[in-house]
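G., the chain you wanted modeled:
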Amino acid sequence: MQVQFKEGAFQPPEVPSTLNLPEKLEIFGQKIDLQPVQQSLNTIQEAVANITRGISIQSPLKVPIPGNRVKSWLLTTYLDRDFRISRGDCGLFVLAKDGSSLLDQLL
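Predicted structure as tokens:
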């Protein structure tokens, strides 16, 4: 198989909108109460949540890829119902089908 990429896309990053601190933290034998810090963070977290909602609804940025340097090849050397081994000009790929019993053996 020979592949040529004509377009790439940049997905907006996923930014967590909350930061959960523990109630207390012990440093060098001293216990520090973090509840006042958490309360101060709540207003900042609300602002961050608004910003992340704005970012997450943006469409991916699509960029055309010019030239011939984006051509690649892939050769499948083994294939069955659950498993595929392919090699190409950029490496070796060992793929297992989602839901395959082979994945259970790896975990």
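The chain has a mean pLDDT of 80.

Shout if anything looks off.
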